[in-house]
Write a structure and sequence with these properties.
Layout: E1 2-6, H1 8-11, E2 16-19, H2 31-49, E3 63-72, E4 81-87, H3 89-108, H4 112-122, E5 138-139, H5 145-152, H6 163-180, H7 194-208, E6 209-215, H8 222-231, H9 238-252, H10 260-263, H11 271-274, E7 276-279, E8 282-285, H12 286-299, H13 308-319, H14 323-341, H15 351-362, H16 369-376, H17 384-403, H18 411-424, H19 430-440, H20 451-457, H21 469-483, E9 498-501, H22 519-528, E10 535-538, H23 540-546, H24 569-576, H25 580-588, H26 595-612
Parallel strand pairs: 2-4, 2-5, 3-6
Antiparallel strand pairs: 1-6, 3-4, 7-8, 9-10
């Protein structure tokens, strides 16, 4: 077994051909979790390659992509050097797509020499390989091959819904925008001239990235070695490195480090803190996640996962210059750690508890955690009224954007921008500062949908199938609680409520009455049944019984399926559903549930949602926000 740190130039130099076996899973990376963060890292390195205006020598950064495990095949004269990729197929495929997308963008802009340099990293140009899989440096798993060929061939259109094609389009668009000097969402222009940026991107993709390449060739059981590398031993956490550094610095400055295990580092080594939990598509320990969030909150800057240790030492060093400073610094961190551990125990009816439950957990926007931690930190002493204003505004921003399917790309940058805003504001106006900042945003990636926009877009959007059911259920439950009056029972939220279609998705069985709908009208109804107005909440057992039943008992005469013979959907809902959300439908529609009823309820529920999550103050809304929502370009959540 041989392990080396290799750049793309070294990894793909010469006549290389990495093949991903057919049994490997297909390409699954996406924009939010992998492509966008990777592109940000690539640009960070590329910026370091751009010569500064002062003319000083550049000191380029590097970015670690992770590990690739492969097994080399015996060489054959005249053939490519073949490697079988055992692990790392997702990052290897993505790296090739990035290289080709940037190469195409650079070539289109007229930088031919640089484009040729990148082409050497993606293609084996020998005539012997023309038209064969060996012309590519990488040959993906069987499910991805057709899309990969299409993406890597400049002469073929790259339209299509395959993840490989979507990734190539994403990186192509981002590369063109950066080369052309277009501003980012914050209005910042890329540095240097276009020629310098093209050279910087090329240099980054050649030498500014690296992987740990592990070659298992020469062993009798390479798969056993691979499994041992991945499954055995206790991984060293970022927190372990930080702990060692902290104690060393504390000793050097004369602090009483013997007390720290009981004061500042208490319980950080226990199972709860070291347990791995899901964050995006990764599993990471709670202590490492907390340290990343805490650094982001304190520094008001985005902290990458792989940079936590280095960033911590750079930030902590001036704060720990003497024993007193070290005690104060670690004491503040300890207080925030205790607060972080209590987040899941917050009262769900409080602004901070609601935010954690709905935004961090249900909407899975962990990137908002540093801002939540800032507001609830004992170190900041934000008044409760301002905590409510700030977190309620951000929760509304998240919920409204989720429902109109606006992109959540760049949430990390939005949180960093807000952290800077609240840090500069007096604590007794911190919540107002968040609300006013969000209300001023007009860019597609940041605007706060108004009531007018919600009413114009949400009623007609297909929610079911495009937004996760758990998120729809959370919104419907919030509406349910808002509909209750003082005369209703104050019922707690039942566990595992399911989203139910009032008019079933299989409406053609019992709901397509004479005259039957034509193709266009049927397609319109297929869209309509998945909109907000046709959705409610029921228990799992009731959901299974409702099935595709007709609406009334009379229409269900003779029906024996679903365990409730001869009962229509309305009758079952009337007997068993307790939610106000559903009882309104049953009471107001005794004879039929129609397309027009769905449309009307969609508008009513949208108005209720706007009441639950008030939008931006009208006096603060930029004029350009009125044109921000385009349902034709809404992204899936």
């Amino acid at each position: 077994m041989k392990a080396d740190a290799l750049t793309p130039r070294q990894l793909f130099d010469g006549k290389m051909h990495y093949e991903i076996p057919s049994f490997q899973r297909p390409y699954v990376w996406n924009e939010e979790d992998q492509w966008a963060p990777l592109w940000e890292d690539i640009l960070r390195v590329a910026v370091s390659y751009v010569p500064p205006e002062s003319g000083a020598a550049v000191d380029p950064e590097r970015h670690f992509l992770g590990a690739i495990v492969y097994e080399s095949r015996p060489p054959v004269v005249g053939d490519v050097t073949r490697h079988l990729v055992i692990d790392g197929q997702q990052r290897t495929t993505t790296l090739q797509l990035v290289i080709d997308a940037v190469q195409s963008a650079i070539s289109t802009r007229g930088h031919e020499t640089l484009a040729e340099d990148l082409e050497d990293l993606a293609l084996n140009k020998s005539a012997a390989f023309r038209g064969k899989p060996e012309r590519f440096k990488l040959w993906p798993s069987r499910q991805d091959r057709a899309a990969f060929e299409q993406a890597m061939d400049d002469s073929r259109p790259s339209d299509g819904e395959h993840r490989v094609l979507e990734a190539h389009r994403f990186f192509s668009s981002e590369a063109r925008a950066w080369l052309e000097g277009k501003p980012d969402d914050d209005g910042n222009l890329p540095p240097g001239t276009e020629e310098q940026r093209a050279w910087a991107l090329t240099s980054t993709l050649q030498d500014g990235l690296y992987v740990v390449a592990i070659n298992l060739t020469g062993h009798d059981d390479s798969q056993l070695i691979f499994e041992t590398l991945n499954d055995r031993g206790t991984p060293l956490l970022k927190a372990d490195l930080i702990k060692n550094w902290v104690y060393k610095v504390g000793t050097d400055v004369g602090a009483d480090v013997d007390k720290w295990p009981d004061t500042h580092w208490v319980d950080f080594d226990d199972e709860w803190w070291r347990a791995e939990i899901t964050q995006g598509r990764q599993m990471r320990s709670r202590i490492d996640i907390f340290l990343q969030y805490w650094l982001t909150m304190r520094m008001r800057d985005e902290v990458k996962t792989e940079q936590v240790f280095r960033t911590f030492t750079q930030y902590a060093k001036p704060h720990m210059a003497d024993a007193t400073g070290a005690e104060e610094f670690l004491g503040a961190m300890r207080r925030d750690a205790d607060t972080y551990r209590q987040l899941t125990q917050l009262d769900p009816t409080s602004p901070e508890g609601s935010f954690h439950s709905r935004v961090v957990e249900t909407m899975e926007l962990a990137a908002t955690s540093p801002l939540l931690l800032w507001f609830v930190s004992e170190n900041h002493e934000v008044p409760a009224s301002q905590v409510a204003v700030g977190l309620n505004a951000l929760e509304s921003w998240v919920i409204r954007r989720t429902l109109v399917r606006a992109t959540m790309k760049g949430v990390n940058q939005v949180m960093v921008a807000i952290l800077k805003v609240v840090a500069d504001a007096p604590v007794d106006t911190a919540g107002d500062a968040v609300r006013d900042y969000l209300a001023r945003q007009s860019a597609d990636a940041r605007y706060w949908p108004t009531d007018e926009q919600m009413l114009a877009v949400l009623p007609g959007l297909r929610l079911y199938g495009n937004i996760r059911q758990s998120r729809i259920a959370e919104v419907l439950w919030a509406v349910e609680t808002s509909l209750r009056t003082k005369f209703n029972e104050d019922l707690p939220q039942p566990p595992k409520l399911q989203v139910e279609h009032v008019m079933p998705q299989g409406w053609r069985t019992h709901w397509d009455t004479e005259p039957r709908l034509g193709p266009e009208a049927a397609a319109a109804r297929d869209q309509l049944v998945n909109t907000l107005g046709n959705l409610t909440l029921v228990t799992q057992p009731l959901n299974g019984s409702l099935s595709h039943r007709p609406w009334t008992d009379s229409e269900a005469t003779g029906m024996k399926t679903g365990g409730m013979a001869g009962r229509g959907k309305r009758g079952l809902l009337e007997d068993f559903a307790l939610l106000v959300l559903t009882k309104h439908i049953v009471k107001q529609h005794p004879d039929a549930w129609t397309d027009e009823n769905i449309r009307a309820r969609s508008k009513n529920l949208t108005q209720a949602i706007c009441s639950v999550w008030p939008g931006p103050p009208e006096s603060s809304i930029p004029e350009t926000v009125a044109e921000a929502v385009d349902p034709g370009h809404a992204s899936e959540q």
